[in-house]
Amino acid sequence: MKLAKMKKEDLELLSHKDITYYILEEEGKMNTADLFKKVVTLLELPAKTFEEKIGDYYTLLTTDKRFILLEDGCWDLRSRHTSDKIVKVTDEEDEDDDEEEIKEDTILPDEIEEDNYDSGDTDEDDDYDDASEDLKDLVVVEEDELEEN
Length: 149
What we know:
Helices cover 52% and strands 6% of the residues. By secondary structure, the chain is mainly alpha-helical. Strands 1-3-2 form a 3-stranded antiparallel β-sheet. Helix 2 crosses helix 3.
């Protein structure tokens, strides 16, 4: 779908995200400012719209799964980029070595030491009791009583 050939009325029916999708599809990767300038131009919006809404537009792009921000700061369609998953091919000898390393590093449940906790009274318990004792003389005063004074 060529955006340049579309009527303004048809463009206005599209969301900014959809217009951006078609721009990236037609022209390739672009930075945020250039993309939004193109949207503003296509929709014939006032120039101040660019300055006022560029932050919202950036947020819109970051939340839409169809777009991806590249390392060079440009946006492109996610469908054009593959994931960075690397498949490591190993032979059987390497796999056996890896299994032995895992077995050596693994801690078995009977090897875990249990912490011994002292259930007796400590000084910390005494501090807590003293704090509550200090608060026993406090009185709750209503707002009405404060205004009268």
